[in-house]
Amino acid sequence: MPDFLPGEVWLAGAGPGDPRLLTLLALHALATADDIVHDALVDPRALALKRAEAELISAGKRGGRPSPNQRDINEILIERARLGRRVLRLKGGDPFVFGRGWDEALALTAAGIRFRVIPGITAGLAATALAGIPATTRETNHAVVLAAGHRADGSSTTDWAALARLGQPIILYMPMSQLPDIVAALQQGGLAKETPAALLQSATTDSERVVESTLGALLDDARRNGIGSPAILVIGSVVGLRRQLLPRLAGWQ
Ligand code: SAH
Question: Which of 94, 113, 195, 219 has the CB geometry, 3.0–4.6 Å to 215, for a possible disulfide?
Fold first, then answer.
């Protein structure tokens, strides 16, 4: 393993939740870091793998209070590194997939701080695979879209009709707050209401839920099943394929 040097920041992905999906590098970082600055989505079971003396710093939403802004988080990372601490910046999934990891990497670069990026298993690919939904198969698709349902500021500039026209599976992060609008826009863009769709909530945790549906029935099914964040929405024919696996597919436990 590379040495985690004092004054460095390691920007690492923690995967979707279950610590068995941490990379060996992320585990090494957890076991070595002095300070761990983590998002709300990082699983407590992963944080439990830290050194006893390591300091945990939450950079996520807590009890409805607003999350610290990005500049404050950048400042914490830079300050701690300048104190000669080994700083682990731990994010859910992969740090460079809808996770603001880029902003932090840029800020560290500008501040002259040495850092390393450790990829993680992104939730969209983990949740689908664990539910028995392949992101690609030779028969169905040679492309897959990863998209975000909303941005931190609540706005979305995504051209849903253009994504619908691609005819490729769409794996959607943060779908819940704008779900009715997104479903409507995709249908207006040409996706049939029969298009298979699934909501995958809290993959690899005790609150894991999978709701298989269609685009047309999705809102009702989501409501009826009480689906909430964090969830991945996957849309496309690949969703229906899972039924072939279900008789033999074991759960994540
Ligand atoms: N960087 C992260 C994504 C951060 S955006 C990654 O690569 O996975 C936060 C969104 O990720 C959530 O709104 C949800 O859409 C998704 N997400 C994260 N963990 C999840 C999980 N265990 N199950 C389902 N979705 C999850």
Answer: 195
| Best probe residue, ligand 1, of 67, 173, 201 (max atoms within 8 Å of C-beta) | 173
Which two tokens mark 25? 């590098």
Give me the mean pLDDT over the 23-41 stretch.
Answer: 97
Residues of the chain with CATH 3.30.950.10: 123-245
| Structural contact between residues 244 and 134, judged by C-beta atoms closer than 8 angstroms | no
- Protein residue whose Cα sits closest to atom 25 of ligand 1: 231
Helices 101-111 and 70-82 pack at an angle, to 10 degrees, of 40
Q: Percent of the chain beyond pLDDT 70?
A: 95
Pick the catalytic residue: 18, 34, 35, 174?
Answer: 174
Give this prediction's pTM: 0.95
pLDDT of 16 reads 98
Provide the pLDDT for residue 68. 80
Q: Give catalytic status of residue 174 as yes or no.
A: yes
The answer, yes or no, to whether any atom of ligand 1 lies below 6 A from the CB of 16, is yes
Reduce the DSSP state of residue 247 to 3 states and report it: coil
Q: Tell me the two tokens of residue 195.
A: 């298009």
CB 136 within 8 A of CB 160: no
Q: Look at domain 123-245 and name its CATH class.
A: alpha beta
Question: What residue ranges of the chain are covered by domains with CATH 3.40.1010.10?
Answer: 9-118
Of 18, 39, 43, 94, the active-site residue reads 39
> Which class is 9-118 in CATH?
alpha beta
How large is the average pLDDT for residues 106-119? 98
Ligand 1 centroid – CA 100 distance (Å): 13
Percent of the chain with pLDDT over 90: 91
